[in-house]
Structures are given as structure tokens and as C-alpha cells.
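Homework help board

Subject: predicted structure for assignment chain

Our instructor gave us this sequence and asked us to write out the predicted structure in C-alpha cell form, then describe one feature. I got the C-alpha cells but I'm not sure how to describe them. Can anyone check?
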Amino acid sequence: MNSKPRNLTMMTDLYQLTMMNGYFLDGSYDNEAVFDLFFRANGQLNYAVAAGLEQAVEYIKDLRFTEEDVEYLAGLRIFAPAFIEYLRNFTFTGDIYSVEEGEIVFPGEPIMVVKAPLIEAQLIETTLLNIVSHQTLIATKAARIVSAAGDKKVVEFGLRRAQGPDAGIYGARASIIGGCAGTSNVLAGQMFRIDVKGTHSHSWVMSYPDELEAFEAFARIYPDNCLLLVDTFDTLKSGVPNAIKVFEKLRAAGHKPVGIRLDSGDLAYLSKKARAMLDAAGFEDAIIFASNDIDENLISQLRLQDAKIDVYGVGTKLITSHDMPSLGGVYKLAEITRDGVRYPRMKMSDSTEKITNPGFKTMYRIYEKESGKAFADLITLREETLEKPITLTHAIDRWKKTTLADYVARPLHKQIFAGGKCVYTCPPLSESVRFSAEELEKFWDEYKRLSNPHIYKVDLSDKLYDLKMRLLSDRR
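My C-alpha cell output:
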């Protein structure tokens, strides 16, 4: 069962509606427009994991103004009566192209391309950015944490710290795309059929006369799922010894304990001491689960210290993307048609990184034939075709060129909507998880390291670059 679609048509910024009203009144509302949705380079992310497409599809499918919506907008007294009437029959009639969920994307690359009447493409900007940027941000943070954890599992634990219910629900979904093995969020588990994980909190232990009695009660109720939180009072003096006592009783009764959880203190030191105690008692298979403000940087340090942690529960710093609370997603006009003539458009700026790429575009990932590894991405005008050999040229420093005689090119965009009709079937979440993990493996480790990564090549075709230079020259 997937999430139940909601009508989010009115979840937009007011200026989208005021522009729509203006387009309607000046007669330009049905001019065909092309918009690109992408994120800008910000010095923190060397790559991102695209997510949120399924919810974006649901939003577009249900795009309509209800009678209540129309009455509310009319009551604002800022829109023309004819425009209000137009909204009563508003639907999306355009085309949308997008990378699939789990795709690895880079700054400046069009994650999504919208080609539609100007008035329609304008309305959906805010909500698409909200959905895609948020889930992509959390999926990316999850991927970084999972990468740092190596062969150890990561579970998303952040619902109580998320910025509201939707951030918790869809953040949990995105974390699974990014590689997490489960979530503590029961509603997300129900909605998206993902594994839910959890045991007990400190309050369970504190509600009993003593720690041992609390552990024994929990073991009686969950004899085959007994994972005990051992740091309520003193991890090494009471928590782990009491857990071992309970585990011995479970083992004598024919049950296999799951393990212990650490939620405070020096996790490297405590995990090594706890591991030694568990092993000495014959519980070599008991896992050590660790939580407590964990992120990819702490995990990296814990692994360097040979911490004996089997599973990481990551909450606040994952669900809020603590060190980067926004992806920096933007939605920019790339082409407009007037009187049957297509005009490329680009955002100009004195800052090179803010100058956009014009035209109706697509992109390809170029893989080395021999290694199977990703070599570069190439953004082209949609009408272009690739040839062999292919010469790849740096998007800015055009003197940097590489020619490949033998390669494999994969188109990154799928058509999602055609003429307002959805022509794409969203795969099961498990398929997006598998796809993302497989694609990430096709990048050399140098591109994926957390600190000072090698910059992956995102190149522009000669035709696209020439168009961009011509528009910049015309500006002068």
C-alpha cells in the first residue's frame, strides 16, 4: 500500500497565482514553456540521491481547484473574475521528464524537466521543489551515513525530531531510498511497506523498581525479540551485567537474545567493553545497537577506533539533515514559445554558478566500457544524438577534453507525463533502493568520499555550450 494521495493544489506561493493571473490576462498563459528543476553546487554535496518522484506524480495527478479553493481565492479580491472561472476547470496538460528515484545526480543537472503551458508549469514550481528537494536531501544524507557505516546497518530513528509529521513520514521514506535498513516510524512502515524497528526506552527501565526487573519483564513479553537498552543507570556496572543475566535465562529456555543498545557515553569505549563482556558470557551473536546524535562523521570516527557496533540508529542528524537543512533546489525557465517560435532562456548572473543552462534538454551518463564505472554525465539539447567516438568537454573550462572510442551511454530521463497523462509506473520502493545502491557502486570511491571528494565531470555538449555562449554574448 502506498501513501494516500492528497490534493495539494493550493499548497503554493501566492506569487505563483498572481503570475498565473497575469499570464491569463495578457494572453500568454498557453505559451509552451520548459522549466528545469535542479540543485546548485554549495560546497557540501558532491552528489545527491534523487527521491520524491512518486509523491510528485500523485500531486500532478490530483491537480485541480475545488469549489472551496475557488471561493477562497475569489475572496482575496486580487484576481480577475475571468481567471477565477478559468481555475474551475484547471488541469495539467503538459509533459514531465524526470530521473528515477534513487538516481545519483549532481549540481546543475535537471532532475526534472517540465514542458507545459506557461500557466500550468508556473503553478507547480513550489510544490515540486518542496517534494523533490526535501526527499532528495534526506535520501542523500542517508546515503552518506550508510556509506560511512560500511557493512553495518543503519536504521532511521528521527520521527520525534523531524520538522512536522510530513517531514517525519516522507523523510523516513527517503532514508530507505538512501540505504537505511528500516525506520522507527510506524506510519511510514504501514504506508510504504518498509521494515519498522525499535525496542524500549529509558522510561521502561525507570518505571520498574530496578533495572534487572525491567529487563526480565521485557524478556518475558518479547523472548524472541529481546534487545535491551543498557545505559539508563550505569552501562558497564549494571546495564550489561543485568542484560547478560536475562540473556542466560532466555538461552536456558530455548530463546536467542537479540542484543543490547547503547544510547549515551563514549560509544567506541563502551561498545568494545560490552562486546568483551557479551563474548565472555557466550553471547558472541548478540548485536550491539548504538544511537545518540550519530551522523556520518561520528560513524567514521567510531570505525577508525574499531568500535564494536553492529547497527546504528540515526535520528536527529539524519531526519533534519542537520549540517545542511536545505538542498538548494531551484526551478528555472529554460525555453518559452511565442507565436510558434521557440526562444531559449537562461538566468544571468555575475556569479558563474548561478548562470543556468538554456533550452529543452536531456542528459546521459557515460560509462567506461571496460570497467563499467561512470566516467561523466553529459547534458545535451534534446534533439541531439550521441556518436562514437564521443568527445566530452568541461562545462566551463572547454580546453579540458576527453575522447572515448568505446563507451556505454544511459539516458537519465524517463517521460513521466505526456499530454497531462501519466505514462510512467512508479516501481516498488524496494526496486528504487536496489537501483540506487547498484548505481552508487558504479562510481569510483574517490567521488564518494565524505571529505574533499574528487569532482565528478558534468559536461555540456558543444551545441548546448554554443547556445549558452550566444545568449551571454547577446546580453552584452
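Reply (TA_rk): Your C-alpha cells look well-formed. For the description, you could write something like this. The first helix runs from residue 14 to 26. That's the kind of observation they're looking for.
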